[in-house]
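input
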Amino acid sequence: MPLPSSSPTQVAVIGAGSWGTALAALLASKLPQVTLWCLEAEVAAGINRDHRNPLYVSEFLLPETLRAETDLVRVATGHRILILVVPTQFTRRVLRTLVDVVTPDTLFVFASKGVEVETLTLISDIYAELFGAERMDRACFLSGPSFAREVLQGLPTAVAIAGQNAEVVRQIQTLFHTPSFRTYGSEDVIGVELGGALKNVIALAAGISDGLGFGNGARAALLTRGLVEIVRLGVGMGAQAETFSGLSGMGDLLLTATSTLSRNYSVGWRLGQGERLEAIQSGSREVAEGVKTALSVRRLAARMGIEMPIAGAVYEILYEDRDPRSVVKELMERGLKWEQGAGQTGP
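output
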């Protein structure tokens, strides 16, 4: 099947939160026309009238070549490349709307990060289930160390784009590439997806540690051992271990777990300061994907018999209302382990 043309009138972004707006603006800066689907009518009106998103990253002026729509079916049928940037827990609902209206040669790019709580499946699994495994070669997955505001500022950013079809991956790489936005290809779809999802849980842990005032050494240990947990689960699910040393693994983890621009780190920091999760979430429109992913990871690890003590500690703080300081104390008092090598008798 021939690849669709990357004609600018055929590119649409589905989801007008901060990250969706940033990717749409990035593409609109190099293409004569890009469409952004918005759930909220006020967002679409603001973009079309003022060239600003009134609810997210509103301080940034958006390209005039970016146009907003609220009719999802019309957007889907009028474009050949669809970039989905909706929260993971809503991805299935959106794809169900699209499955009967898009053409078989439509290309999908998924830029959300997470694991569906109800089914414990990745976005690639949801796509394959609804569209058929034979159309997996029409899908790509974008992940890596990136903040919406920095992309909108034109600051240097590098991400990974994974897919089963190398030709499709190259086309999507080219579509996104700009002098300030560099793209690397990957064939490890599972690894790129999991790296982007699981690092959010470790970022919550890092924020909690900093909120408790535990210092730089504690954060460094959390990131190092957290990466071990990510690799452990990722390899168990079929990912390539080396993927997690790249942009969608270590790179994304370092960014998300060390910056106040990170929603997950910020939520963790506030938890460490003693705030309740309900109060934190009620005061923000932004979704911290790690909160839901912590629940998914807990269930995945239990099902697969994989020990993930840091991710488990985050789960206990979020969902069992455990005191963060006491949970950290229990982590530190666990039985002694070998980090690696022949002396290691357990995870």
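quick obs: The first strand starts at residue 11 and ends at 14.
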